[in-house]
């Protein structure tokens, strides 16, 4: 079992399972919090606040992996590993690779939760936007970032409105770069948009 990620984060990525000499993916059909909790615990992360992510936009996987498992069903307090959970059997699936599931596990002992936002490297009301995902703080590329996105962040931080800053205006971050083209008006859509881009290689640099 492994999580494939192109970010500097071991707690999130595409869920892969090793079978018969190679890795394949797991279909997201019926993949719920039970399965997330079992998987994250098995990988050594917290069983709380994990998320299953639809990989419909993980285009790069289509030529890389086959779907190995479908309809994985873990029984609470009984199954301690994904391998013990019920499933339809290897290669018994009607899922396409774009239906493969991705996972975000919460880092043990983290003080932030999914969707928390902070401003860093500036003042209390201005700075580099950082978003917490899976217990880790990361930055957001400014490509596609607009007034609506800035307003959403500032509203969550209890300010009336905001404006996007210029690239390089604040010091670069050191965590993962969560994604680009993130232009959303609500926190739910902001977080959802980022989650579907998690394993993409971004062309953004640290000062973007």
UniProtKB/TrEMBL annotation:
Task: Work out whether the entry's keyword set contains NADP.
Answer: no
Q: Which SUPFAM superfamilies match?
A: SRCR-like
InterPro entries, A to Z: SRCR, SRCR-like_dom_sf
The record places domain SRCR at 1-106, 117-208
Q: Which Pfam families match?
A: SRCR
What is a single cellular component term in the Gene Ontology annotation? membrane
Record has Repeat as a keyword: yes
Signal peptide coordinates: 1-24
Going by the UniProt record, its keywords in alphabetical order are: Disulfide bond, Repeat, Signal
Q: What is this protein called?
A: SRCR domain-containing protein
Name the source organism.
Amphimedon queenslandica
This protein's gene is called 109586845
